[in-house]
Amino acid sequence: MQSVDVAIVGGGMVGLAVACGLQGSGLRVAVLEQSVPEPLAAEAAPALRVSAINAASEKLLTHLGVWSSILANRASCYHGMEVWDKDSFGRIAFEDSSLGYSHLGHIIENDVIHYALWQKAQQCRDVTLMAPAALQQVAWGENEAFITLKDGSMLTARVVVGADGANSWVRQHADIPLASWDYRHHALVATIRTEEPHQAVARQAFHGEGILAFLPLSDPHLCSIVWSLPPLEAERMQAASDEAFNQALNIAFDNRLGLCSLESERRVFPLTGRYARQFAAHRLALVGDAAHTIHPLAGQGVNLGFMDAAELIETLRRLHSEGKDIGQHLYLRRYERSRKHSAVLMLAGMQGFRELFAGENPAKKLLRDIGLKLADTLPGVKPQLIRQAMGLNDLPSWLR
Ligand SMILES: Cc1cc2nc3c(=O)[nH]c(=O)nc-3n(C[C@H](O)[C@H](O)[C@H](O)COP(=O)(O)OP(=O)(O)OC[C@H]3O[C@@H](n4cnc5c(N)ncnc54)[C@H](O)[C@@H]3O)c2cc1C
User: Fold this and answer.
1) pLDDT of 99 strictly over 90
2) I need a surface site. Which of 18, 43, 107, 226 has the fewest CB within 10 A?
3) Is 105 close to ligand 1, i.e. is its CB under 6 Å away?
């Protein structure tokens, strides 16, 4: 039987960030991941899953020593953002230099971030990567948690971190209640070639029942799209011929970048909001999608998860250096309170946006367009909005 201090179930982006952040703390860490990531091919076409990484996550990834290798792979810096309501005057635009920033964020393939963290974790002396690992059982004892793997091996840990994504096995086995709701949207993702260069601007159009984001990639004529649509419509768009798809896409996007055409396959993800009633329990902490999932309309899901990681790293390091039991719920409550607060604000914000921008009711449309116009023109509003989007209001003190 192997013994560690921290057993992280799920070696995705967030779980690996926690592992790398604990290196050097004196805590022995194991990451149990069900699959082994493949190295990235430099000449491969951009992957379909990308994330808009904000300044707060950039700070964490820099601190973890992976930011330069992410940039050396493939990352696309964006300098502007534009959001508009189709067929109306509602529009807001942000530009980094006028707000005093060098950039607003980066669009990065999830695999690039994941692999950089995986390689870093491999180099961490205090971290053991156990992959592929298939979990059979977990039991929470008074002083330790006991994990049994399907191959019969066992592991004990003083705290288990559930970082195993939206359908978290750990959350279910710990009987943590979950609030969940259907966003009545599926997200269609694809890579699109644009006639005009994207000029490093992230764009998003609200149209009828849909939300269409064009995220600029390193190639000035390639964007990754996240097109949130009612489920049947998303399935219809996935099955449509390339020609019909391109036509619908160009209409929804107001031909903002000239004629756009599909460059990749299309994949569809159902969107569900989730909120675990507890982010911590006796010898347990949940991070990332295991604790919460949100609509991708503001591109904040993994950014929120990275800040969970940052807060948990700080909490576990502090408890350990003070000689306290890192698995006591009493001590993990501070982590739970702080992260629940951020998650609730984000979930409520996304819900508000989702409701306000749903449908073509003329009164609602007028209200949101006036809101966008006011936010675009009133002094002092944009700097606050951009600070929020960059995650600068949600940074744990040690990263500030
Ligand atoms: C269409 C779409 C677009 C998005 N765009 C953005 C964006 O622009 N910006 C942003 O911030 N967020 C975005 N998100 C959200 C973001 O992708 C997620 O929040 C993020 O991937 C969650 O990371 P995670 O590490 O918590 O979970 P995951 O990425 O789900 O990782 C979980 C890991 O756990 C492993 N695992 C699962 N079960 C087990 C088990 N039983 N045993 C062992 N291992 C297990 C999995 O193999 C995986 O490696 C988007 C989401 C969607 C659907």
Assistant:
1) yes
2) 43
3) no
